[in-house]
């Protein structure tokens, strides 16, 4: 299971899963340091930050933003 943190609502993170379904996950079971736009994955019974995917997404967004202003 994989997703991206969309936003926070109270004690929940709203996560857009890879199938585009939004899922509420309690913040307390997510890894420290997550923020909006962080990619996460469920591995061996726990949520982990997917650092490689997070960096790739950030690079894609930065490139799109750069192209908007050229």
Structural features, described:
The chain is 26% helix and 40% strand. It has one helix spanning 51-68; strands at residues 2-9, 12-17, 22-26, 39-43, 46-49. 10% of the residues are buried. The model has no long low-confidence stretch (mean pLDDT 96). With 70 residues, the chain is of the alpha+beta class. It has one helix and five strands; from the N terminus they run E-E-E-E-E-H. It has a single domain (2-68), classed as SH3 type barrels, CATH 2.30.30. It has a five-stranded antiparallel sheet with strand order 3-2-1-4-5.
Map the helices and strands.
Layout: E1 2-9, E2 12-17, E3 22-26, E4 39-43, E5 46-49, H1 51-68
Mean pLDDT: 96
Element order: H for helix, E for strand: EEEEEH
Largest sheet: 5 strands, antiparallel
CATH architecture: Roll
Specify the number of helices: 1
The CATH class label is Mainly Beta
Total domains:
1
The CATH topology assignment is SH3 type barrels
Q: Strand order across the biggest sheet?
A: 3-2-1-4-5
Quaternary organisation: single chain
Instruction: Report the count of strand segments.
Output: 5
Shape: globular
Cα(first) to Cα(last) distance is 37 Å
Uncertain spans: none
Radius of gyration: 13 Å
The helix content is 25-40%
Main structural class: alpha+beta
Instruction: Note the beta-strand portion.
Output: 35-45%
């Amino acid at each position: 299971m994989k997703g991206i943190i969309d936003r926070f609502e109270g004690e929940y993170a709203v996560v857009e899963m890879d199938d585009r379904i939004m899922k509420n996950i309690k913040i307390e079971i997510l890894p420290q340091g997550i923020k909006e736009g962080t990619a996460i994955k469920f591995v061996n019974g726990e949520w982990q930050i997917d650092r490689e995917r997070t960096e790739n997404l950030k690079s894609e967004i930065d490139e799109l933003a750069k192209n908007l202003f050229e």
